[in-house]
Amino acid sequence: MAPGLRRNRDSWLIAGILIIGVSLSLIVCGCIAPANDAGTATDTALHNSTLNSTPTPTPTPTPPVTEPVQITLTVIKFEPARPCQLCTKLGNYAKETIELYFPEEYQSGKIRYQTVNYQDPNNIELVKKYGVSGSSLLISVMTDDNEEATTDANDMWQYVGNKEEYMTVFKTKLEGILSAYEDAT
Description:
The protein has 185 residues and is α+β, with helices and mostly antiparallel strands. It has one domain: Glutaredoxin (3-Layer(aba) Sandwich), CATH 3.40.30. It contains six helices and four strands. 23% of the residues are buried.
């Protein structure tokens, strides 16, 4: 075979392998949405897929003091139909933290855990409500059947590689939210 034809064939073979590799990477990692903040290229930014990339601060509530307020936290893990290993850990660690450190609140329904497939058409209303475009972790605060606030907990992505640290940070986050609402009543 002529040297020019051989080089041309090898170039096409390499290009084809690269295209297949990139395509497979995109398919396998399809649960990772691009970050909205192009200035940060951290692991957190890669996984923070809510439309508002700035974490929402937990507001200081001012419920009426005259009546006792029933507080409910719902930890919502949005994931695709076929989540990657990190997506699964994000949700599993959150649920384990709740079960380990808040067993009474979990059993009574004061703290709930919910997994939502954001690709399922049946969940479109929740996806729109929270502005989710990929795997995400949110905490919804309800007082007496009214949603008071939603906390973006996508900062937990940075702890997925260390279960113990994840659980410590997430426990502190939940305690802070509960404390803010209980102190206000």
